[in-house]
Write a structure and sequence with these properties.
This protein has 528 residues and is of the alpha+beta class. It has helices at 107-116, 157-162, 224-229, 235-242, 263-268, 270-283, 297-302, 371-381, 383-391, 443-457, 504-520, and strands at 15-19, 34-38, 50-51, 73-76, 132-135, 137-139, 143-146, 152-155, 192-196, 201-205, 219-220, 260-262, 285-289, 316-319, 335-338, 350-358, 366-370, 393-400, 403-410, 412-413, 425-426, 463-466, 473-477, 481-485, 495-502. The strands form eight sheets. Strands 12-13-23-16-25-14 form a six-stranded mixed sheet. Strands 15-24-17-22 form a four-stranded antiparallel sheet.
C-alpha cells in the first residue's frame, strides 16, 4: 500500500492532509488508516478538518425517544444484579468492532462516505443479550428513561452531546478529538431519534452539524451499560459509581480475621492479584505470606500493582535501627501512629513493608488503625470537630540536608467527593507537623478538635497488632491507614524491613482492569 502525505492550500480551494490512505482504487479506509481531511467552501477560508483514525459500529445500547409522546419498545440494559459487572470493557466508549468505509478514490467519494455514516437505519452488529426490559422514553426539557424496576434516569441534551461517542467526536479510547465540540452544547436541542436493533440501539440525529469535521450529519449512539453507569440524576447510581467496592471501616475485630493472601498466588496469577487488590480496597491493608526473604522481593511485589514511587528516600529503602538516624523510623524507640510523606503535594498511595530479618528478643510489633473508622467515630461523637479538621489546614514539613519540604493540607480530605459528603482520605502525621499557620480565631477550635482525634487513636478497640516475621509482607493504603511500631532493644538482635511505595493511581488502574476482565470472564488464572 502506498502512503501519501501531502498538504496543499490554494485561495478558495480545498486543503487535504492524508496519511496512510491507499492510493489504489478499490481500497478504502480501515481502522489502521489515519486521515485529516478538510474541504473549504468558496465563501469561507479553508480550514483543516479532522477525521479520526478509526470508525466503529455500535455494540450494547439503550434505546430512547425524544419525541413528546412516549416511544414503546424494548430497551436492553444489564439486570440490576449485573449492571456494573457484565460490560465494564466499554465504560469509556461505545465502540465495538471495526466499521469500514466504502472504497473511495477521490475527495468527493471520501466526503460521501463520511456523510453516509449513520445515515442508514440498518441495525449495528448484534450484541449479546444483557437483560431486557419494556420501557418508555420521553423528552421535554430533558431526556427521561424509565427502567423495568421503576427507576427513572434523566439526562440533559447538552450532556449527551458533550459525551457523544461517535468517531468524529471521540477516539476509540474515549479521548475527545476537539475542544470545539463543547461550543455546541449550550444550544443543543432534542435530536431526531431512530430506534434500532430491537431497542438495544438508539441513533440520535442531532440538528447541529459537526463543527470540526467534514461530515454533514452528526449521529450519536449510546450503550445501556454506559448510560446506566454514568447516570447522574439518581443518588444511588452516583454512589455506586464512586464507591463500586466501598471501604469497610474496621476496628480490633479484624484481628481475628486479618486479610491474608499467599505470595505465589499474587505473583503468579491475576486471580490472586485481584483478591489482594480487593482486600486493599475494602480493608485498606493485606498481608502477603511466604514472600521470599530476598532484597528484591518487595520491588517485585510492588510492580504487580504499578510503578514504584521514587522519592529522596529512593525507590526502595530499609527500615532498621541505625545510629544518628535522620528519621525517627530508623530508630528502635516506640513510633506512634502516623502516615508517610504528607509534606509531598501528592503523597504515596500504597506502602509495602517486607520483613527480611527479625532476630530481636522482643518488641518491634507493627500496629495498624483504620483512619476512616477513626473519622466515622469522630463525626458521630463530635461533628463540629470533624468539620474543623476538614476545613482548618495543618502544616507538614521536612527539613534535612538540602530538602525544604512544606505543605498545608486539612487532616480530613473530602476534595474529590464533596457533593457526597464523604471523606476520601485522611492526613495524619504528628511527627512531621510544623507550626500551625491559621487565622487567630481558628487556633483554639483546631486544637480542641485535634485532641479529640488523638484520644480516639488511643482506643485499643480500634487497633490491630502483628509481629512481622521474615517472609511477611504487609501492603496498606497510606492515605487511609495509620501505622505504628512498639519499641525494641536493638542490642538483642536486628529488625529489618524493606519498603517502597506505589501511587494510588497505578493501583486503582490495575484494580479496574482486573475487575473488568473478571466480569467479562477473561481473567486468566495465570499471568503473562
Amino acid at each position: 500500500m502506498a502512503t501519501q502525505a501531502c498538504s496543499h492550500q490554494c485561495r478558495g480551494a480545498a486543503m487535504v492532509l492524508l496519511r496512510g490512505v491507499s492510493t489504489q482504487r478499490g481500497v478504502g479506509l480501515t481502522s489502521t488508516a489515519a486521515a485529516l481531511v478538510g474541504v473549504g467552501a468558496p465563501s469561507v477560508a479553508p480550514a483543516r478538518r479532522r477525521v479520526p483514525p478509526a470508525i466503529f459500529c455500535a455494540g450494547r445500547y439503550v434505546a430512547y425517544s425524544t419525541s413528546p409522546n412516549p416511544v414503546a419498545g424494548v430497551i436492553r440494559r444489564p439486570s440490576t444484579s449485573s449492571a456494573r459487572t457484565q460490560a465494564p470493557a466499554h465504560h469509556h466508549n461505545a465502540y465495538s468492532g471495526d466499521y469500514r468505509l466504502p472504497a473511495v478514490s477521490s475527495k468527493r467519494g471520501l466526503q460521501s462516505a463520511f456523510n453516509s455514516f449513520g445515515a442508514a437505519d440498518e441495525p449495528a452488529a448484534a450484541a449479546p443479550e444483557m437483560g431486557a426490559l419494556a420501557t418508555q422514553a420521553t423528552a421535554d426539557a430533558h431526556l427521561r428513561l424509565r427502567w423495568d424496576d421503576g427507576a427513572e434516569s434523566s439526562f440533559h441534551y447538552s450532556w449527551l452531546l458533550d459525551n457523544c461517542p461517535c468517531p468524529f467526536c471521540k477516539t476509540a479510547s474515549g479521548q475527545k478529538l476537539s475542544v470545539n465540540a463543547r461550543n455546541q452544547v449550550r444550544t443543543a436541542a432534542a435530536p431526531r431519534v431512530t430506534l434500532l436493533d430491537g431497542g438495544r440501539t438508539v441513533r440520535l440525529h442531532w440538528h447541529e452539524k459537526h463543527a470540526n469535521v467534514l461530515a454533514e450529519t452528526h449521529v450519536s449512539e449510546f450503550p445501556a451499560s454506559w448510560l446506566d453507569e454514568h447516570c447522574y440524576s439518581r443518588p444511588e447510581r452516583v454512589a455506586a459509581r464512586r464507591f463500586a467496592l466501598p471501604p469497610t471501616p474496621w476496628g480490633s475485630e479484624l484481628q481475628g480475621a486479618l486479610p491474608v493472601v499467599d505470595c505465589a498466588d499474587v505473583m503468579q496469577t491475576d486471580a490472586g492479584l485481584l483478591e489482594c487488590s480487593r482486600h486493599l480496597q475494602k480493608h485498606g491493608l493485606v498481608f502477603v505470606r511466604n514472600t521470599p526473604a530476598e532484597e528484591e522481593s518487595v520491588e517485585r511485589a510492588a510492580l504487580r500493582f504499578g510503578q514504584l514511587r521514587d522519592t529522596f528516600y529512593g525507590r526502595t529503602w530499609d527500615v532498621t535501627s541505625v545510629p544518628q538516624a535522620v528519621n525517627i523510623a530508623y530508630t528502635s524507640v516506640e513510633l506512634g501512629f502516623h502516615q508517610d510523606l504528607f509534606y509531598f503535594e501528592s503523597p504515596p498511595g500504597l506502602q509495602l513493608l517486607h520483613c527480611v530479618e527479625y532476630s530481636i528478643r522482643e518488641g518491634g510489633a507493627s500496629l495498624f488503625l483504620d483512619g476512616f473508622k477513626a473519622l466515622d467515630v469522630l463525626r458521630a461523637e463530635r461533628p463540629d470537630a470533624y468539620e474543623t479538621l476538614a476545613t482548618v489546614p495543618v502544616t507538614y514539613h521536612y527539613r534535612h540536608g538540602r530538602q525544604r519540604r512544606q505543605l498545608r493540607r486539612t487532616i480530613v480530605d473530602r476534595r474529590a467527593d464533596n457533593d457526597m459528603d464523604q471523606h476520601v482520605g485522611i492526613y495524619f502525621s504528628p511527627q512531621f507537623e510544623g507550626p500551625l499557620d491559621v487565622p487567630f480565631d481558628q487556633v483554639d477550635r483546631f486544637y480542641d478538635a485535634y485532641r479529640h482525634l488523638l484520644a480516639i487513636t488511643q482506643r485499643r478497640e480500634l487497633h490491630v497488632a502483628t509481629l512481622l516475621q521474615p517472609g511477611d509482607l504487609v501492603i496498606f493504603n497510606n492515605r487511609r491507614l495509620f501505622h505504628a511500631r512498639t519499641g525494641f532493644d536493638a542490642s538483642t538482635g536486628r529488625r529489618r524491613l524493606r519498603g517502597c511505595y506505589v501511587d494510588l493511581d497505578d493501583y486503582m488502574s490495575t484494580l479496574r482492569e482486573l475487575e473488568e476482565r473478571a466480569a467479562a470472564g477473561t481473567l486468566d488464572a495465570g499471568c503473562a
